[in-house]
Amino acid sequence: MLLAKIVGTVVATRKDARLVSSKLLLARPIDPRGKAEGSCLVAVDTVEAGVGETVLIVSGSSARMASGMKDCPVDAVVVGIVDEIELNEP
């Protein structure tokens, strides 16, 4: 599972029929402090997330286990919107 910040949307007028009606979001992975890590990725939105929100993303075979994604050609899915991150470090 990844923490990420939604930085945009992706519009694809032609796509696999199983992805019609799916909202595609552009997400940048972040560390628990909110610092960007790595490259952006495209994820299917299942929780109505929006630009600027911090989200939880599952990827790989776990992505196809998300609600409504069974047998869909996806590699990353937004499965939660983060309300708060509490970091307990000395």
Which strand order spans the largest sheet, edge to edge or round the barrel?
A: 1-2-3-5-4
Based on secondary structure, the structural category is mainly beta
Number of domains: 1
* Biggest sheet details: 5 strands, mixed, barrel
Order of helices and strands: EEEEE
**Shape annotation:** globular
Instruction: Specify the CATH homologous superfamily.
Output: EutN/Ccml
Q: How many beta strands in the DSSP annotation?
A: 5
CATH fold annotation: OB fold (Dihydrolipoamide Acetyltransferase, E2P)
Key attributes of the depicted protein:
single chain; 90 residues; mainly beta; OB fold (Dihydrolipoamide Acetyltransferase, E2P); 0% helix
Task: Explain what this protein looks like in three dimensions.
The chain has 90 residues and is mostly beta strands. The chain has one domain (2-81): OB fold (Dihydrolipoamide Acetyltransferase, E2P) (Beta Barrel), CATH 2.40.50.220. The protein has strands at residues 2-10, 23-29, 41-45, 54-59, 76-81. It has a 5-stranded mixed β-barrel.
